[in-house]
């Protein structure tokens, strides 16, 4: 098979770059594996859940060029559905709860996407925001979410009926595995035949149409993937905190994920992970310091400084610098 | 309907809020011809193009491709039927290499374009064909260059290669030589002549020397309506056409010829 392929020098270069990138990922995986021995596992798990959420959002904004302002709806839907199922049916194993929660987010994503995907730019953002607000008010009213109180004491249960997730190390490694799965799926999506078409659409949509592509269908698939992964993050988060609440459905959350993604670097694979880590880390640090009440203004200030001084985010700027100096 | 005409419009009309941009146009493009659509600025050439390629819906009228009504179809659907357009401003995928540009056009028919779980390496078997197409337009050595870094004339050639990758029956070129220096114009004229073999081309073109060198049939539009039709000699002798062009294009024609 390899003999029939034609590779250009840039492809060979890219393969070498891939090797380096794989080495970088491997190092990060090792760090991820030893991290719970150095830091508080629940905090790490929170970081991972938000990192996955931000990655899911970035798939849409960075790789399909669609700014959704309603991603909280998917995070919350995953969380509520999983939380409700595990609370009501104690025999259900957590992985099934997560699966159903994710599936619910996928379905909601299909509905949101079908209603919004034909809109462009700010109109797309407004439609997603409006739909997410609708979902928010729905979750306040319906009984299964516990309304303002939320769902408390969601049992973590036994993974595959065997591994007790009340053990925080076991819980951590499970969350880590879920995160790796999500990250790998996004990485593959970006570098797939589908990813090539998405890129073409982002670069020049009319041209993609004139090459016979039904661009709306491709955007819709990207939207649904992103919604599903956001739901996966929400489901996993519910099991970690044993809690699903309205905070996740609020539009603040939709804004926060934008902040994380832009801070780290939109359109870079690792940017959102770093952005989410920074936001969650700062929230954690500041809330324990005497500046506790000033978390939001300080984060806002950092955001403003970052957006003004490095527009493509931390990872985006780092990549630019690397390209400038090492090529 | 005979297959003599690959593309035909009947009473094609487009109105924008009361303003009639295209007025009752009956256009017939003969199979195998290079057909030019010319006319002074604002004559509605690009609007006709957008109507034909379904980038705009017509207010009235019918469009037939190979005798079949395509009036209600979508832009991407007619592209799949072999009617592929280019754009006035060069339409390339700027942050992809020349090879990747062509490959995007080649990959759709293989049917894995929705496969987000497959590696993009699964597309590498298309590289050889993509390089062949680049070779055809003289861009082989650019295969590996990011399109954004290519000179303008080369981008237009790349666009032709990408269009060829669709194996079009009918190519619609919107001002293929616009904004080019004389040397590039000659190269594109040769290129169009070469790729038009066995195909039909409908082009909007401002440069009348290009039109006279290339085209078998010319339709002149003025104020959205057909003013004259025929080969270059017939059209250029038409007093109405001379009047419509007076003061603007006639002079530039003489200047560039």
UniProtKB/TrEMBL annotation, chain A:
Keywords: Cell membrane, Membrane, Transmembrane, Transmembrane helix. The chain crosses the membrane at residues 23-43, 50-76, 96-115, 122-142, 169-186, 257-282, 294-314. CDD domains: TM_PBP1_LivM_like (cd06581). This is Branched-chain amino acid ABC transporter permease. It is a multi-pass membrane protein. InterPro entries: ABC_transp_permease (IPR001851), LivM-like (IPR043428). It comes from the Bacteria. It is found in: Cell inner membrane.
UniProtKB/TrEMBL annotation, chain B:
Residues 7-248 form the ABC transporter domain. Keywords: ATP-binding, Nucleotide-binding, Transport. SMART domains: AAA. Gene3D superfamilies: P-loop containing nucleotide triphosphate hydrolases. This is ABC transporter ATP-binding protein. One of its GO terms (molecular function) is ATP binding.
């Amino acid at each position: 098979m390899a003999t029939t392929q034609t590779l250009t020098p840039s492809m060979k270069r890219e393969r070498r770059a891939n090797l380096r990138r794989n080495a970088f990922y491997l190092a990060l995986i090792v760090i991820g594996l030893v991290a719970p021995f150095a830091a508080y596992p629940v905090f790490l798990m929170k970081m991972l859940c938000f990192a996955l959420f931000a990655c899911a959002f970035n798939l849409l904004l960075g790789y399909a060029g669609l700014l959704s302002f309603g991603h909280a709806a998917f995070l919350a839907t995953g969380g509520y559905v999983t939380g409700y199922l595990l609370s009501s049916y104690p025999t259900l194993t957590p992985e099934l709860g997560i699966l159903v929660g994710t599936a619910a987010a996928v379905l909601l994503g299909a509905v949101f996407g079908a209603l919004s995907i034909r809109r462009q730019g700010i109109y797309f953002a407004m439609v997603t925001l409006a739909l997410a607000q609708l979902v928010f008010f729905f979750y306040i009213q319906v009984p299964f979410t516990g309304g303002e109180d939320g769902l408390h004491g969601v049992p973590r249960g036994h993974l595959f009926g065997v591994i007790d997730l009340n053990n925080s190390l076991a819980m951590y490694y499970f969350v880590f595995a879920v995160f790796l799965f999500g990250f790998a799926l996004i990485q593959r999506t970006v570098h797939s035949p589908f990813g090539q078409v998405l890129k073409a659409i982002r670069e020049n949509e009319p041209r993609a149409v004139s090459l016979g592509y039904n661009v709306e269908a491709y955007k819709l698939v990207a939207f649904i993937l992103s919604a599903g992964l956001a739901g996966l993050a929400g489901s996993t988060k519910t099991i970690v905190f044993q809690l699903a609440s309205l905070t996740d459905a609020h539009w603040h959350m939709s804004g926060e994920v934008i902040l994380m993604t832009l801070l780290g670097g939109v359109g870079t694979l690792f940017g959102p992970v770093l952005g989410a880590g920074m936001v969650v880390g700062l929230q954690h640090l500041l809330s324990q310091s005497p500046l506790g009440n000033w978390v939001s203004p300080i984060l806002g200030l950092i955001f403003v400084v970052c957006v003004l001084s490095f527009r493509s985010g931390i990872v985006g700027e780092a990549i630019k610098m690397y390209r400038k100096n090492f090529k | 309907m005979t297959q003599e005409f690959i593309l035909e419009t009947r009473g094609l009309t487009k109105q924008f809020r009361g303003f009639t941009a295209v007025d009752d146009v009956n256009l017939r493009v003969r199979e195998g011809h290079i057909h030019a659509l010319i006319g002074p600025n604002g004559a509605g050439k690009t609007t006709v193009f957008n109507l034909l390629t379904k980038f705009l819906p017509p207010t009235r009228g019918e469009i037939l491709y190979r005798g079949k009504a395509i009036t209600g179809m979508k832009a991407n659907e007619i592209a799949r039927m072999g009617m592929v357009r280019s754009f006035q401003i060069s339409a390339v995928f700027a942050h992809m290499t020349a090879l990747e540009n062509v490959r995007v056009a080649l990959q759709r028919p293989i049917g894995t374009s929705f496969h987000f779980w497959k590696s993009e390496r699964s597309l590498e078997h298309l590289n050889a064909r993509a390089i062949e197409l680049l070779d055809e337009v003289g861009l082989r050595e650019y295969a590996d260059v990011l399109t954004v870094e290519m000179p303008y004339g080369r981008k237009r050639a790349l666009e032709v290669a990408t269009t060829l990758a669709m194996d079009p029956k009918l190519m619609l070129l919107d001002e293929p030589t616009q904004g080019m220096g004389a040397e590039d114009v000659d190269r594109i004229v040769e290129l169009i002549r070469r790729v038009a073999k066995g195909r039909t081309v409908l082009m909007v073109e401002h440069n009348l020397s290009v039109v006279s060198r290339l085209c078998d049939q010319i339709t002149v539009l003025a104020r959205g309506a057909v003013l004259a039709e025929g080969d270059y000699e017939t059209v250029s002798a038409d007093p109405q056409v001379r009047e419509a062009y007076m003061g603007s294009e006639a002079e530039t024609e003489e200047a560039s010829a």
